[in-house]
Amino acid sequence: MKTILITGCSSGYGLETARHFHAQGWNVIATMRTPRADVLPAAERLRVLPLDVTRPDSIAAAIEAAGPIDVLVNNAGLGLFGAFEATPMATVREIFETNTFGMMAMAQAVLPQFRSRRAGLVINVTSTVTMAPMPLVAAYTASKTAIQGFSTSLALELAPFDVRVKLVEPGYGPGTRFTANGTERMQGLIPEAYAPFAQAIFAALGNPAAVTTAADVAETVWRAANDASGQLRYPAGADAVARAVNDRPV
Q: Are the beta carbons of 102 and 51 closer than 8 angstroms?
């Protein structure tokens, strides 16, 4: 029976992915900054651990408590909408600490056990903003694009040890807490000069042609985890698949 560790399970993609793998019979270690029994009640083959991916001591404690794992899903992330001109560099650094450095730190923490066993899989959840440009998410896009390049190189680096790396690329998910979790962080990031432009963007986002659901991402992570091929990228959601077809062969 395989064991998967998933970061960012308090809501959205991570929560649904934890539920999906548990339903499929896997051992699931669901992590979140502040564990909540009302989000993931105790169950056989399911453990909830505290984890803040921006803190080395928290990462070390979680990895030790988890024990051997087969798959790491780096899902924890922060959202950010706003004009880059108005975004404090402290906020940019906060986004990178979780979305980029947090993912890298988690991967680095599990690689010794994967390499020694010559088995293991790292799945990094990024975004389709890395495929096609989107306004008002410059810092967020940069944080996710960095992980795209990181993962592509890391996959080649780990191949001699039979350790795999994969990317899951969700599309736009208005049903998640992406924006709700960052409401305070985004205050004041749309200056008056940008307001008309931003309103048009938000209007379009409010009426999307296709969207990505948490279930779409969970099912795509499941497919990536069980795919023995050399495929690196897995778009998740109807809009992501459409964008990937236009961007490159899937």
A: no
